[in-house]
Specification:
23% helix; globular; 6-stranded antiparallel β-sheet; alpha/beta; 8-stranded parallel β-barrel
């Protein structure tokens, strides 16, 4: 199938915020405990209880930000339970996820250490649901104050004399549901009260992130901002960002699905573009100067529970890889309106990057997509036009269709990065690529990375951890550029424009 891709190098777009490649870890199943954290006395190699192999792998993808401790867990988490000597920390009940026992061995200091080891900015989601204004305010002081207040001295006594300098703070999580079951106007009242007391301790300006809607619900956003704004559409409290959540869900199960279900999930993943458009439009009604950032706090697939597995553990196939690529390409193209996004979640839960079992670590297809796409981070977006065949499928007795080919492009220095997905399950796409604004060339030095498999259900396991991994090739491509994109594939082309 033929397709045409035009890159407008002569019309550079906005810089792709590194934070669009963010991550999320919640105390849920084996994401944190037995995932990121194994304890200092574990036979598994670790740094202060944090898995060494996972840290090393995380570094490979240059993670910009990591959100913690939830998720629903955040609004029942009390930060003082997770500081001080570990043998004195209380064992609490994780009421949101199966009434499991939480040892609190992984707390604020362990999280900050993890962020520093992998090079990510910490993003703390505060407890608005069951906590108090004083509790969240004290957490900010504990983390950030740089003079000897009682809380700063407690932080020092717990091993960190220097402030953590945490910039990103979520004022609750999913306020419409597990964060308190608020209506938007009632949450606005609570948000205003909390924001009043969340101060810039220690010279670290806070970036306060309010809860947005569950999926694409502009009416929630409008009602929240209307209540928060004044008659002349100014805001009488501090708000720096609004965080929506978007899970494309599932079609079939994590590893068992028909070809139609393959297409159905990829089409849903592409729906994040409409969410970003509609949410920003609703925000613009109250914030036309765009002082409030749009954030995608949580995104990814959500398959039915895997029988016999821990809470929300799910396998990760080539289909999930395409979901990740389609989503990241959308975020790259919409870098003018979205400023942070955090995939759910880091390890073992939902669309995880890592699966762990004892000493074994598996890098999932989603991890490989993040590694392939890392050169987009901080690069300047390049406008892209894709003329593509349409793929059709049937869902719920209704015929639907969407473009077979999608992608994004960016440039940093003299290096151009083009990422493309071919969603068709059976057919290759022959793409001709035009570089509008580039000078005449006869050839380009390039590298091509491809992630694909003949089996639509292919995935990595603890027995076969590299069943699905990218192929890398360095080559000289003649001009004009043409690229063969195999079925069910993610491809990243890097060109030198010098």
């Amino acid at each position: 199938m033929p397709a045409r891709v035009t890159l407008h190098i002569d019309r550079p777009g906005p810089v792709i915020n590194r934070n669009l490649y963010g991550h999320f870890a919640e105390h849920l199943g084996a994401c944190v405990n037995d995932g990121l954290y194994v304890g200092e006395d574990s036979p598994i190699p670790n740094i202060g209880g944090l898995r060494s192999d996972l840290i090393e792998a995380f570094r490979r993808i240059d993670p910009p930000v990591l959100r913690w401790p939830g998720g629903c867990f955040a609004d029942d988490y009390h930060w003082r339970d997770g500081v001080g000597p570990r043998d004195r920390r209380p064992v609490t009940v994780n009421t949101w996820w199966g009434n499991s026992l939480e040892t609190n061995a992984f707390g604020t200091h362990e999280f900050i250490t993890l962020c520093r080891l992998i090079g990510a900015e910490p993003y703390l989601a505060g407890n608005l649901g069951s906590g108090t204004v004083a509790e969240m305010r004290d957490w900010v002081e504990y983390c950030n104050f740089d003079r000897p207040s009682t809380l700063a001295k407690l932080r020092a006594a717990n091993g960190s004399p220097m402030p953590f300098g945490v910039k990103y703070w979520g004022v609750g999580n999913e306020a419409w549901g597990c964060g308190g079951n608020f209506c938007p106007s009632d949450y606005a009242k609570e948000y205003r009260r909390y924001a009043t007391y969340l101060r810039d301790f220690g010279g670290t300006p806070l970036h306060l992130i309010a809860c947005g809607p569950d999926g694409n619900k502009p009416e929630w956003t409008r009602a929240f901002l209307k209540k928060l704004s004044t008659a002349d559409k100014r805001f009488n409290c501090r708000i720096h960002a609004l965080g929506a959540h978007y899970y494309c869900g599932t079609a079939g199960t994590a590893t068992e699905y028909s070809v139609d279900q393959w297409y159905e999930l990829l089409h849903r993943a592409a729906g994040v573009d409409q969410l970003l458009t509609d949410q920003r439009a609703a925000m613009d009604e109250f914030d036309p100067e765009r002082r409030i950032d749009l954030v995608l706090d949580e995104w990814g697939t959500w398959h039915p529970p895997t029988p016999g597995a821990s809470q929300l553990w799910q396998q990760n196939t080539v289909r999930d890889a395409l979901v990740a690529a389609i989503t990241l390409d959308t975020l790259n193209r919409r870098a003018d309106i979205v400023h942070m996004a955090n995939i759910a979640q880091a390890a073992n839960v939902l669309q995880a990057l890592f699966l762990t079992e004892g000493e074994k670590l598996v890098l999932t297809p989603t991890f490989h997509v993040f590694e392939m796409y890392k050169h987009h981070q901080g690069a300047r977006g390049v406008p892209i036009e894709v003329e593509s065949p349409v793929t059709s499928y049937v869902a719920g007795g209704e015929k639907r269709s969407f473009p077979t080919l999608a992608g994004s492009a960016s440039v940093k220095g003299s290096a151009l990065t083009l990422s493309l997905t071919n969603a068709h399950a059976r057919h290759s796409v022959e793409a001709s690529i035009a570089l509008a604004g580039a000078g005449p060339r006869t050839a380009y030095e390039s590298s091509v990375s491809t992630l694909t498999h003949d089996d639509l259900h292919a995935h990595n396991t603890f027995v076969a951890p590299t069943e699905l991994a990218p192929r890398h090739e360095r080559t000289t491509l003649p001009a004009p550029l043409r690229l063969a994109l195999g079925p069910a594939s993610v491809t990243v082309l890097r060109l030198s424009l010098s």
